[in-house]
Amino acid sequence: MTFEETMPDLSVVIPVHNSGPVLAPAIQQWRRYLQEGRTQIIIVENGSSDESYQTALENAVDTPYVSFEVMQSPKGMGNALRCGIAASKGRRVLLTADDLPFGFSDLEGAAALDEEPLLIIGSKAHPQSQAGRGLMRSLSTGGFKAARRLILGSRVGDSQGTMNVDGEWIRQMHQKFDDPGFLFSTQLVLAAETQKQTIAEVPVTLTVVQGDKETSVTLKDVLKMGLGLGRLRKQKREFSLAPQTGSVKK
Fold this sequence. Notes:
Blueprint: E1 10-16, H1 23-33, E2 39-46, H2 52-59, E3 66-73, H3 77-87, E4 92-95, H4 105-111, E5 119-123, H5 135-152, E6 162-166, H6 167-173, H7 184-194, E7 199-203, H8 208-211, H9 219-234, H10 236-240
Parallel strand pairs: 1-2, 1-4, 2-3, 5-7
Antiparallel strand pairs: 4-6, 5-6
Helix pairs in contact: 1-2, 5-9
C-alpha cells in the first residue's frame, strides 16, 4: 500500500498570504521535524501580491514521511483554511500559521495529553505558555476574549491559537464556518463548545522571531471581529444541530 493510499496521521493546513522570506524556512523546518509517521501538508496561498505561491511550489518537496500539496484560494485566512480542510485526508487536522509561531510546542503539548480530545488548541492563554507580546497585542487579545465570553458564552481562553482537530468532524463541519477571515477559528471553537465536544488547551512557546514581531492585526480588524461575534451568536443553533462524529463530553 502506498503513502497516497493510506490515511495520513496528520494533515497540516497552512494559509499563506504575502509570506515573504518566512515560508521557505518554515517548510524546511517541517521536513526536518517530521521523521516518522505520515503527514500531509497543504499550503494554501490566498491573494498574495508577492512570490509566495512560487516559493511554496519550489520548496514543497515530498519526503518518505511528508507529502505536500500547494493550492490557491480567494483572499482571506478563512477561505484558505476551508479550502485546505476540504483537501485534507488526515485522522487529525492541524490549522496553523505560515511562520511556525510556536515552533512545534503545540504538537508536543498535544502528544503529552493522556487522552485525545476532539479539539486541541495551542493556546497563548494557557498559564504555562511563554507567549509574551507587546501591549497592543495583549490588549486586543484580552478584549476579544472578554467579548467572546460576554456575547457567545465562550469559556475557551484562546480562539486564535493553532487548532488540532478530529479530521472526520472538521471535514463534516467546515462548510458551516463561512467567515472569510480571522473569525473562522472562532466559529470552529464555538461549534465545538456548542456541541459539548471535548476541548483541551495546551501550552505553547512563542518563537524568538514571533516574540519580536509587531502584530499585523489593526484596531479596525479588532472592531470588525468584535462586531462579527453578534453574527456568530446567531449560528449557535445551526452548529448545535450539526452531525456530531467526534468524541462528546458525557
